């Protein structure tokens, strides 16, 4: 073997491996197009299609298109993503949907930025002038939910619901993935924010679904589930602020009810409404208990965050 062949072999051995992850449920109309577009953009990548109990020909079409097809029987996108992250081994992971709405040509640029800046996640923020690309209410819902995350967690992403993301190995293998449905993108975003991971955004084109392909996202049901997750993560990750708000509200209510009692007592030295006085006392005690819970849980949360951070740091950073 001459020197050129040795260098070529060494280059191939050290080249980072890329896995394209496509969770799918009834995407027969779009999966072949999606696989073909990522094959053109990332010819060396392994493309995985994880079927989630599809009733159509998604599995057959994906196999014929050359993808590695596996299945996850527990229904829900979060369950599929958790299975993919656990099973697939690679240096870089490209997560997208199987509906041909995301721009596969943006993937190389996102991967390049991940390596150049030593990032753990690059989010493909969606940009589209097509009205058909977003279902009714989705734009408003995305802005509202993104605003909630910004208000609660400070710095955030401009599109927390984007399903187009590039991850490092250490992000994927240290991410617990506890949600079951379309809340998974929000959980991923908050996880990165809480551990202060190096992340970035890249604007990507977002297209309408091909004819015959239908969205599985329910505007109101899944929007409510995402909002509930945000509030639950607020309780778990920022317990002092969460229980402090409850404590403050109870204290304000107690003060409001006690003002008239106090004025009456100062004028007559009598407390004519004993039940109201007992209620005010109870509200103040509840406020103290709530604040105490927040302070105690904050210590627990800090310990959990330290464990997650150490698990994250135990894995190697992305290297080109």
Description:
It is elongated and about 90 Å long. A seven-stranded mixed beta sheet has the order 3-2-1-4-6-5-7, with helices on both faces. The protein is built from eleven helices and seven strands. Residues 2-12 have low confidence and may be disordered. Helix 3 links the parallel strand 2 (46-51) and strand 3 (68-71). The protein folds into two domains: 15-235, Spore Coat Polysaccharide Biosynthesis Protein SpsA, Chain A (Alpha-Beta Complex); 239-313. Helix 6 packs parallel to helix 9 and helix 8 (184-194) packs parallel to helix 9. By secondary structure, it is of the alpha/beta class.
Q: Helices and strands in order, then pairings?
A:
Layout: H1 3-14, E1 18-24, H2 31-41, E2 46-51, H3 58-64, E3 68-71, H4 77-87, E4 92-95, H5 107-116, E5 121-127, H6 138-153, E6 165-168, H7 169-172, H8 184-194, E7 199-205, H9 219-237, H10 239-268, H11 274-313
Parallel strand pairs: 1-2, 1-4, 2-3, 5-7
Antiparallel strand pairs: 4-6, 5-6
Helix pairs in contact: 6-9, 8-9, 9-10, 10-11
Organism: Sphingomonas changbaiensis NBRC 104936
Protein name: Glycosyltransferase 2-like domain-containing protein
Transmembrane segments: 240-268, 274-297
């Amino acid at each position: 073997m001459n020197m050129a062949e040795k260098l070529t072999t060494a280059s191939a051995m050290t080249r980072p491996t890329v896995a394209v992850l496509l969770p799918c449920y009834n995407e027969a109309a779009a999966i072949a197009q999606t696989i073909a577009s990522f094959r053109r953009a990332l010819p060396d990548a392994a493309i995985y299609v994880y079927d989630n109990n599809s009733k159509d020909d998604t599995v057959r079409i994906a196999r014929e298109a050359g993808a590695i097809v596996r299945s996850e029987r527990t229904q829900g996108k979060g369950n599929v993503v958790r299975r993919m992250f656990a099973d697939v081994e690679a240096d870089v992971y490209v997560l997208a949907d199987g509906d041909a709405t995301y721009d596969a040509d943006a993937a190389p640029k996102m991967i390049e930025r991940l390596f150049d800046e030593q990032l753990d996640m690059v989010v493909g923020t969606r940009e589209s002038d097509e009205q058909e690309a977003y279902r009714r209410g989705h734009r408003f819902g995305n802005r509202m939910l993104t605003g909630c995350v910004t208000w609660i967690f400070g710095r955030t992403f401009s599109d927390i619901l984007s399903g187009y993301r590039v991850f490092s190995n250490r992000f994927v293998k240290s991410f617990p993935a506890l949600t079951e449905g379309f809340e998974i993108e929000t959980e991923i975003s908050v996880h990165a924010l809480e551990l202060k991971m190096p992340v970035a955004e890249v604007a990507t084109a977002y297209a309408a679904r091909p004819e015959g392909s239908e969205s599985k996202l329910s505007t109101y049901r899944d929007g409510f589930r995402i909002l509930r997750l945000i509030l639950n993560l607020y309780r778990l990750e920022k317990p002092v602020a969460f229980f402090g708000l409850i404590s403050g509200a109870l204290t304000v209510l107690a003060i409001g009810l006690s003002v008239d009692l106090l004025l009456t007592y100062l004028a007559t030295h009598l407390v004519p409404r004993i039940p109201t006085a007992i209620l005010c006392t109870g509200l103040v005690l509840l406020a103290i208990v709530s604040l105490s819970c927040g302070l105690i849980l904050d210590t627990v949360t800090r310990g959990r965050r330290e464990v997650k951070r150490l698990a994250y740091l135990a894995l190697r950073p992305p290297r080109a």
